[in-house]
Amino acid sequence: MFYTYIFCLILAFCALDGLGLKINAESLRALLATTGVSLKEL
């Protein structure tokens, strides 16, 4: 379930970027870094 949530979160970011809503690269990196840490803690 957790992996599904992360997958949807990443898809949402990609969809927003595709719609032309500029997403900070730093924000995306922070999200991925946090996600990576969370996955490692599992």
Sum up the structure in keywords.
42 residues; mainly alpha; 2 helices; 81% helix; 0% strand; flat
In brief:
By secondary structure, this protein is mainly alpha-helical. The protein has one domain (2-41). The protein has helices at 2-18, 25-41.
Q: Are there runs of 5+ residues with pLDDT below 50, and where?
A: none
Round the Cα radius of gyration to an integer and report it. Answer: 11 Å
Count up the helices.
2
Largest sheet: none
Q: Give a count of the beta strands, DSSP E runs of length 2 or more.
A: 0
Through-space gap between termini = 13 Å
% residues in beta strands: under 5%
Tally of discrete structural domains: 1
Q: Mean of residue pLDDT?
A: 71
Order of helices and strands: HH
Query: How does the overall form come out from the CA principal axes?
Result: flat
Helix percentage: over 70%
Structural class: mainly alpha
Could you characterize the architecture of this molecule?
By secondary structure, the chain is mostly helical. The protein has one domain. Helix content is 81%, strand content 0%. The two termini are 13 Å apart.
Write the layout of secondary structure elements.
Elements: H1 2-18, H2 25-41
